[in-house]
Design brief:
The chain is mainly alpha-helical. It has nine helices and three strands. Strands 1-3-2 form a three-stranded antiparallel beta sheet. Strand 2 and strand 3 form a beta hairpin. Helix 2 packs across helix 3 and helix 4 crosses helix 6.
Length: 241
């Protein structure tokens, strides 16, 4: 019986969508998770497509257990949905209305978050945020989620670090609850994101470092408004295409 955590894998499975990214040696659940997440983020698996646990296990040459674990994590990310008696399906891409609702919520929360961080952040927290921005300045090596995922993680970490710097646990919880919805940007992530996002983050951090509560709120509001505009254009283009 296959080990649910470390299944032996001979060579890459011949799959219509996994291709060369199929695992070649021992596989852990988090590796399966990363493979599936990359394909969902790049829309290789079409939105609404059914995801068969047994079929994926055969494709990846693993037992069903790491597949189930990966799909459960992807459900919490908002990238797959589970329905009773139907199993898992790839979640739909975020639409214009949902995108607008998401940013309306973020515009309520995150300018206040930046303002409170400007007032309450410790020197160590500010240094940590500066380090995150330094990593975000590194150029992306290409298009697609695989090249972008480190930047995406750093972007999320930047916003979460500001929330943690407020010292308000409920703020951190609120932003964490919005993350699954933000994950559904997927195809739109790479639309000029790095070149625009980093300078906007720098303006937020600059205000936080100067303890400028009003300026930090304004910089965050400007960043979120610009991000919403960029992504709204990408959504419209995807519909037209």
């Amino acid at each position: 019986m296959a080990d649910p955590q470390t299944d032996a894998v001979p060579r890459a499975a011949s799959s219509p969508w996994l291709g060369v990214n199929a695992p070649r040696r021992s596989v852990l659940a988090d590796e399966v998770y990363e493979i599936l997440k990359s394909k969902l983020m790049d829309n290789v698996v079409e939105p609404g497509s059914r995801l068969s646990i047994d079929g994926l296990a055969r494709e990846l040459k693993v037992s069903p257990t790491p597949i189930r674990e990966a799909l459960a994590r992807l459900e919490s990310d908002g990238l797959v949905a589970k329905r009773a008696h139907h199993g898992y399906t790839a979640a739909p891409l975020i639409d214009a209305r949902t995108l607008d609702e998401l940013f309306r919520m973020r515009l309520l929360l995150e300018p206040a978050c930046a303002s409170w961080a400007a007032r309450d952040a410790t020197a160590r927290q500010i240094t940590g945020i500066k380090d995150l921005l330094a990593e975000m300045r590194k150029p992306l090596s290409g298009d697609g989620y695989e090249n972008y995922k480190a930047f995406a993680a750093q972007d999320a970490a930047f916003h979460l670090a500001l929330a943690e710097a407020t010292g308000v646990g409920l703020m951190v919880d609120a932003l964490e609850r919005l993350r699954p919805h933000a994950q559904r940007y997927r195809l739109y992530y790479t639309v000029g994101i790095a070149d625009d996002t980093v300078p906007e983050h720098e303006r937020v951090l600059d205000a936080v470092m100067r303890r400028d509560e009003v300026g930090a709120a304004q910089a965050m509001s400007a960043h979120l408004s610009a991000s919403r505009h960029r992504l709204a254009i990408a959504v419209v283009r995807s519909i037209e295409d």
